[in-house]
Design a protein that fits this description.
Two copies of one chain form a homodimer. By secondary structure, chain A is of the alpha/beta class. Chain A folds into two domains: 12-68, Arc Repressor Mutant, subunit A (Orthogonal Bundle); 76-258, 3-Layer(aba) Sandwich (Rossmann fold). Chain A is 37% helix and 21% strand. Chain A has a seven-stranded parallel sheet, sandwiched between helices. A three-stranded antiparallel sheet of chain A has the order 1-3-2. In chain A, β5 (124-127), α8 (130-136) and β6 form a beta-alpha-beta unit. In chain A, α2 crosses α3 (42-54) and α6 (86-96) crosses α7. Chain A binds chain B through residues 27-28, 30, 33, 61-64, 66, 70, 75-78, 80-82, 84-85, 113, 128, 130-131, 133-138, 140, 143-151, 153, 156, 158, 162-163, 166, 264-265, and chain B through 8-9, 11-14, 17, 54-57, 68, 72-75, 77-78, 80, 128, 130-131, 133-134, 137-140, 143-151, 153, 156, 158, 162-163, 166. β7 of chain A pairs antiparallel with β6 of chain B, so a sheet runs across the interface. The structure holds a DNA duplex.
DNA sequence: CACATTCCTGCCTGATTTTGCAGGATTGGG
DNA sequence: CCCAATCCTGCAAAATCAGGCAGGAATGTG
């Protein structure tokens, strides 16, 4: 290893693939290291890493990059309690957009779990996430409909054919989309094949689509594309979301809602 | 242990992840120790710990950090129906009757929830109870299948046509029946119309049927009859169950299992 | 062949992040 | 009560970063 091959021109694609290989092999890459290895400037490497991150193939961090977001790699149960501070605030704002009397489909995800906790009475809820369903069981004043199917360990929700078929029959007024990466260029993305298919189906049948995105998922892509950004009617972001990432969205008619600043974190 | 690896340079994020790993592995971390391990100043470590604590991923203490309290990590609702000591004991015994490799249908109920918690790895589980599903999400080694439908507020599980239809397609090796009243004369009973229908359907398709009954439900009837007692292959009862109620059952070939005595209720 | 376009690259500039250190406050044990 | 360890705050240096700009190679077009 460590052999520095002197190729007159290494194609960018080839270099990016090599970076990915090294990433899966070593579990991390360091920008300065890669620059030396490819005999190029760190700027070029940084551009590569930025692009790979935008495509959802790695997670950009200060000094280099790590394999795809630990959030996607760690099973749902570990993330279960992760809805602290920031996500609570997001969830509260999200729940505030739901009106009594509506039929709401709640997609999987910890942010949506936080939203479910603060849902007003009088709504009908459908979900394929057992964690969210568990949260709403026993809430008098909320009609709960569960979607079945094999539960995907990664997303923690029922996916696959059975769930899809059930989703086909739903025409919710509102869809709370979860666990998305959002990028003006790439649109809405997610981390699982079946998850993406499910989201597409849900979007199709929903009257309005609302997504909540944490700041770290703003401006990054994901391996599977769900759809363009203009399918969103509303977007909930954190208090510290950078304006430049939102301007394009507001321009195409997406209503932007800022969550209140979380006390900690 | 204690091996100090020569890390050329560790990315900050990577270091924080490593701290978390160590935290879950050792159950605690010490700031001074980490500083030496990562060849960095204690200030940096302290900053890491502060940040992780702010994100709710650990609990900051004097000298280092501890894992987040498991109690705080589980959602309130999952604990809401927390089984009492008696039901814990029943559930444990129930779970002991499940063998790896089996396909088990777990009916609704808090006793079954307790059983789900102690299920061995390697089983495939189907359920229509979101609380039970929530408990098993993220259990690597357990395949989870969720049944959909409208969630009945009384039983807290998906019932009705949709759930029934899904149940029709299942042929589990084992059925853990829940929330039943058991009487030699009237047979197995339950408290909801749809619930009874669902149970009948499940029993039809199951290879073996096991029920767990608390002592107060032994020898009493219920509004809706599910079926005769001889459909049971096994019955789990509490340590203080009166013999006279069990004799008739043993006579018709039901295997009786007594749970260990619970310390408190 | 001439020209425009596109893509990749390196360099520059100002902004952001990380880090170690100093000084003072806080905590825990004896 | 005292002392040492630990902690937090602010600060400055260094590393890293993003965006803009220009040069050069490759490609496409007339």
């Amino acid at each position: 290893m460590g052999t520095i091959v002197d190729l007159p021109s290494v194609l960018p694609q080839q270099r990016q693939q090599a970076i990915l290989d090294r990433l899966t092999k070593d579990g991390r890459v360091i920008a300065a290291e890669l620059a030396q290895m490819f005999q190029t400037s760190e700027d070029t490497i940084r551009r590569d890493l930025r692009e790979l991150a935008a495509r959802g193939l790695c997670q950009r961090v200060y000094g280099g990059a790590l394999p795809i977001s630990p959030a996607a790699a760690t099973p749902a149960v570990v993330r279960r309690g992760a809805a602290t501070g920031r996500k609570q605030a997001l969830g509260a704002t999200l729940a505030g957009l739901v009106q009594p009397g509506q039929f709401v489909f709640i997609d999987a995800g910890t942010t949506n779990l936080a939203a479910a906790r603060r849902l007003p009475d009088g709504v009908t809820v459908a979900t394929h996430d057992p964690l969210i369903a568990a949260e709403l069981v026993g809430r008098t004043g909320i009609d709960l409909i569960l979607l079945g199917g094999r539960v995907d360990p990664q997303s923690g929700a029922a996916l696959g054919l059975t769930a899809l078929r059930a989703a086909l029959e739903m025409r919710p007024d509102l869809l709370l989309l979860g666990a998305c990466a959002l990028d003006a260029a790439n649109g809405l993305g997610t981390f699982g094949l079946d998850d993406a298919e499910m989201k597409r189906q849900l979007i199709n049948g929903a009257g309005a689509v609302i997504a909540a995105v944490t700041t770290d998922k703003l401006g990054t892509g994901a391996p599977y594309i769900v759809g363009p950004t203009d399918i969103l009617s509303d977007l909930v972001v954190e208090a510290d979301a950078p304006d430049h990432a939102l301007q394009g969205l507001a321009a195409i008619g997406v209503r932007i809602h800022r969550a209140e600043r979380a006390e900690a974190d």
